[in-house]
Design a protein that fits this description.
The protein is mainly alpha-helical. Helices cover 63% and strands 5% of the residues. The protein has 13 helices and eight strands. The strands form four sheets. Strands 1-2 form a two-stranded antiparallel sheet. Strands 3-4 form a two-stranded antiparallel ribbon. It has a two-stranded antiparallel sheet with strand order 5-6. Strand 7 and strand 8 form a beta hairpin. Helix 3 packs across helix 10. The radius of gyration is 34 Å and the shape is flat.
Length: 443
């Protein structure tokens, strides 16, 4: 009812405006007819532009009215100057940086892999007598060994008595063991509890779990669309089920835990000596007592369901009548991911501008860079502007969503359908933001 009232009110306002504009045009034509003598009224229909001109001519702007122009111009200038300064930092990083100095490993002699004919990948042999990794003797190899029969460890004959290879796979410019437990051993021995070790271990885990992660992301996107369809088709049912679940779920879980504590003999996990039976009883009694409280809360808030229904239905209607809103999360995520990836690449390039210090006998990963004062200033400025750009992208995304929503909301209903609602609202909202509000969004 609230939506119908709002829609009828907007439509009535539109009709009143058209009627007033038409009457103004009639007054103009009547005045012309009196001045020029009796003439017949033109038979051609009046265009919308003519109505707009007639309405504006008879209704001058209100006091204080201004044309829509660029907002916060001072901040726009500051933002543009900050981006110009960031481009200078990028130029310095591109001129003096080399990512290979940061990403490539080095051998036990302190020589970077991938330079002067040395192999690209770092490989650590294993001592067959005790199974320990020879992390203090990294090698530069052209390809990662795929089995224990490889002969790459023969290069260590002058340094150690026994060394053997194992199955490995390339990861960036390093050869990681194919066995997961061996990967953890390598990461622990190489970097310990340092930040570099944690990042390397995280990268290795993501490398091995990339397929499940991609499948989870796809499943989450599909379930999100299903949830939007449920809200659009049966929002009231979803709300009612949630309220019922708020009351029934604590009682059901509490009864199950109390039953498990009394008749399961060992608690819900079936393991003796864990004390689960007593804990199950305590948690079960608490949840069972919490259920009536949740029921009372559900009964109190049920009066507000109609108001929530109006908001949910309006939101769902806006999303499905402006389909570009469904793509906004993907566009925003892709843009931010690309921006963050670019910033990380540039920051690593900026770090590599320093003087590289590698000592013989290292593990092939850890290294130090010595930077000048100006390079530290470059990095500080880079971090600040990069953070500013991330905040700017978030503000831009929120503005576009708000612009599309308000344009749809104030469009009038005709025969149950929105008319003059924005098409390709994301592009129109982006154009509006870039034209008028870059300075405000930069604040």
């Amino acid at each position: 009812n609230a939506l119908e009232f709002r829609s009828s009110r907007v439509l009535s306002s539109e009709e009143m405006w058209q009627a007033e504009a038409s009457s103004s045009e009639d007054d103009v034509l009547a005045t012309d007819a009196q001045a020029d003598g009796p003439q017949s009224r033109p038979s051609s229909p009046i265009s919308g532009d003519e109505v707009d001109e007639a309405f504006l001519s008879s209704h001058p702007p209100l006091p204080g009215h201004q044309r829509h122009t660029t907002t916060d111009r001072a901040w726009l200038v500051i933002f543009v100057l900050a981006l110009v300064g960031l481009s200078k930092v990028f130029q310095h990083a591109a001129k003096h940086g080399d990512l290979r100095r940061l990403s490539h490993g080095y051998n036990f002699k302190g020589q970077l892999c991938g330079f002067e004919g040395r192999g690209l990948y770092v490989f650590w042999c294993v001592d067959p007598s005790n199974g320990q990794m020879l992390t203090h003797l990294p090698l530069c190899v052209d390809a990662c060994p795929t089995s224990a029969n490889a002969t790459v460890c023969g290069h260590l004959s002058d340094v150690t008595v026994s060394a053997a290879a194992y199955g490995s796979s390339p990861f960036v410019s390093y050869c990681l063991p194919q066995d997961a437990d061996m990967v953890h051993q390598v990461m622990g021995r190489l970097t310990g509890k340092s930040m570099a070790g944690k990042l390397m271990a995280l990268g290795a885990q993501l490398h091995h779990a990339k397929l499940p992660l991609l499948m989870s992301a796809g499943l989450a996107a599909c379930l999100g669309f299903v949830y939007l369809q449920l809200l659009d088709k049966c929002a009231k049912l979803v709300l009612v089920l949630c309220l019922i679940g708020l009351s029934v779920a604590p009682m059901a879980v509490g009864i199950w835990l109390m039953y498990a504590s009394q008749f399961g003999s060992e608690g819900h996990d079936g393991l003796p000596g864990t004390g689960d039976a007593k804990m199950d009883m305590n948690v079960g009694v608490f949840l069972w007592a919490l259920s009536p409280v949740c029921s009372v809360v559900s009964c109190v808030i049920v009066r507000r369901v109609e108001r929530a229904m109006g908001c949910i239905e309006a939101g769902s209607e806006c999303i499905f009548q402006e389909p570009s809103l469904l793509l906004e999360p993907f566009f925003a995520m892709a843009f931010r991911f690309g921006m963050v990836a670019h910033f990380l690449h540039q920051f690593c390039l900026l770090i590599s501008c320093g003087q590289l210090a590698i000592e013989a006998g290292g593990n092939g990963i850890l290294r130090r860079f010595h930077h000048s004062f100006s390079e530290y200033w470059y990095m500080s400025y880079f971090v600040f502007v990069a953070w500013w750009m991330c905040e700017f992208s978030i503000a831009m995304s929120q503005y576009i969503l708000a612009w599309v929503t308000q344009m749809w909301y104030f469009a009038p209903y005709v025969n149950g359908h929105k008319v003059d609602a924005p098409r390709c609202g994301l592009i129109a909202g982006l154009a509006n933001a870039l034209r008028f509000h870059i300075g405000t969004l930069a604040v």
